[in-house]
Amino acid sequence: MSSRPDQPARRRRDDFEALALPLLPSLAGMARCLLRDESSVPALVQETLLRAYQAGTGPPPGTRSKAWLLTILYSVFDASYRKGSGERGTTSIEDYEARFDRSLEAPDPEVDRAILEDPNRSWSRSAVSEAFDRLPEPYRTAVLLVDIEQLSCEEAATILACAVDTLRSRLFRGRHALATELALLDAARGATRGAAPIAAREHLAAEHAPPGLGTRVRAALDREDGVREAFDARGRRRLPRAVWAAGWVLSLVLAVVLLFAWTILDAPAESARDFRALSRGQLALSLKTGDPARLQRRLAEEGLGFPPHVLDLEALGWQLAGGRVHRFARRSSALIAYEDSRGRWLVSQVFAGKVDELPDGAERRTREGVEFLVYERDGVTSVFWQEGAVVCVLASDLPRVEVVQLAFAGAMKTV
Fold it and tell me: What is the pLDDT of residue 298?
């Protein structure tokens, strides 16, 4: 018997590190731009890389590694960090819009232009950083991705889940705003309005990741690989037989406990909470779109780990609103939202699992060979059904019969 470790697993890990670790400075720079809090940067970068590693797929064909990882990072930030990040110390977009319009109508714009174009002046790192931090997040991210990270406007728009024209507008105004802030700080040296971020790139570009970040990421990947590494062929021969047997017993006990924990978990209540949060505006969508194919691509790029199922309900009067990678029942899920012309909401979620793991108490309905489990929690009806290796759930506060009929129709019209 060979004593070598699992070669495919080792190769997968090596390939991922070769792809991801050189991009740590870029990921840390984007995290810092979004969070504006150095202490939280390592956690956001680590969570991003773990999600990418768990997906096991790598970048989609035609997508650069940097763009792929930054897309995941922005999705993780939007889902888990945005609420607490704050935007203290920034100038509002409304103020910038007014300032921008006034500057275009200035009686003598050449005076300011001469200061910015003076080739004998240089930028101060502290001034550039202070000016950049004052920009609103949409301007900061556009400037960072295009002018600092050298991504295309199309790549940046995909990362930020916005239209390309919107991205170009943010970039144009962000460049101008940065030059304006530098002028206000009396530190504008050697750049035109349009090229201010280009001249400032050497100060804003993250050449190095925070100290210890690479070690922290490797340790997290080690923990992810821990089970396989602990029980490789070489490790089995070193462990005493009694310890090996005890390990198997413990693994079996843990498996039973985890299965029991999932079984008693009130997934219908969690479905109801997610519906309430989204319908009240407390849960953001990482991509707002009415295009099912585009949403499927975005969910796959965010490291979902399984093909998302987008229900086709347009013929029934329900327009796709968008979606996000979410956490449901302690596992990754694709959360997809629909809205009708009356402003009512439907929320669909898809996650890996079996309907047999759901709690008791469901009303069971069957349609064309598919079994549907119907639950009621907090005035929200949730209908679960199995589709291959994943479970789908449709939730709404519509009358129970309407939700059930929509689930019947949706299950037959999965994209």
Answer: 81
